Amino acid sequence: AQSVTQLGSHVSVSEGALVLLRCNYSSSVPPYLFWYVQYPNQGLQLLLKYTSAATLVKGINGFEAEFKKSETSFHLTKPSAHMSDAAEYFCAVHYTGTASKLTFGTGTRLQVTL
Amino acid sequence: DGGITQSPKYLFRKEGQNVTLSCEQNLNHDAMYWYRQDPGQGLRLIYYSQIVNDFQKGDIAEGYSVSREKKESFPLTVTSAQKNPTAFYLCASSPQGTTEAFFGQGTRLTVV
Q1: DSSP characters over B40-96
Q2: pLDDT on residue A53
Q3: Which of A56, A21, A51 is nearest to A36 (CA)?
Q4: What is the rounded distance in angstroms from the CA atom of residue A84 to the CA atom of residue A112?
Q5: Using beta carbons and an 8 Å cutoff, which residues of B are at the interface with A?
Q6: Burial (Cβ within 10 Å: 0-12, 13-18, ≥19) of residue A104
Q7: Which of B93, B60, B58 is nearest to B74 (CA)?
């Protein structure tokens, strides 16, 4: 079955350090890809999306992600972590040719320490 | 302001009771979705609707029911057949021709 995998359910970084959250998809046909952020007891907010245009996508709050077809990956990065980045992050995919719905990864909780 | 409103934010239900979660959007989006969120499992799709008076089962539809009588509204009923209903429920919508989903703030359902 087509799926999306997020490696690492918890990631901890120091404030000011690089943030790297991993996402891999399983399809020979590049899907549409999304990253969402969720703060405690809230809904999800879109960070950025890839829809077959530029492979390096810039989003809100200084985040960006690079689509790599050869690695079937769409990892999320931020050069310098801030305390306010602590949240849960979800990668999601829509595989073209399927019904109009997203499939979500299991999420990665980002902790930022002083 | 445009957006998606879920109510109530917190809901308590006794075992054996049905309960309905409300989801309203004023974004004029065609598609609407219900997801269930449990710790460590991400979001799982319960039901979705791409047009009024039509909806499809998602991955975990058993024990749930929905209706789509109006474009703006997509209520979810958690029935007594749902064996483990305690979870965080998220409603979302998306415009026609895109799967970019916009989410409500969620309803936390607890069975007591």
Answers
A1: TS-EEEEEEEEETTEEEE-TT-TTEEE--SBTTB--EEE-TT-S---EEEEEEEE-T
A2: 76
A3: A21
A4: 8
A5: 4, 6, 31, 33, 35, 40-45, 48, 50, 56, 58, 88, 90, 92, 94, 99-106, 108
A6: buried
A7: B93
Distance CA A82, CA A78 (A): 10
Residue whose entry in the numeric block shows the structure tokens 């409603």: B91
| B-chain residue closest to A6, CA distance | B42
Q: Is B55 in contact with B47 (CB distance < 8 Å)?
A: yes
CB–CB of B60/B36 below 8 Å? yes
Compute CA A4 distance to the chain's CA centroid, rounded to the nearest angstrom. 10
Strands A73-78 and A103-104, by their bridges, are: unpaired
Which residues does chain B have with pLDDT short of 50?
Answer: none
Residue of A nearest to B108 (CA): A41
- What pLDDT does residue A94 have? 87
Model confidence at A1: pLDDT above 60:
no
Q: Rg of chain B over CA atoms, in angstroms? A: 13
The dihedral through the CA atoms of A14, A36, B47, B73 has a sign that is positive
What does the pLDDT look like over A23-34, one tens digit per residue?
A: 999 877 778 899
Size of interface A-B (CB pairs under 8 A): 60
pLDDT band for position A97 (50/70/90)?
low
Q: Is the distance from CB of A104 to CB of B43 less than 8 angstroms?
A: yes
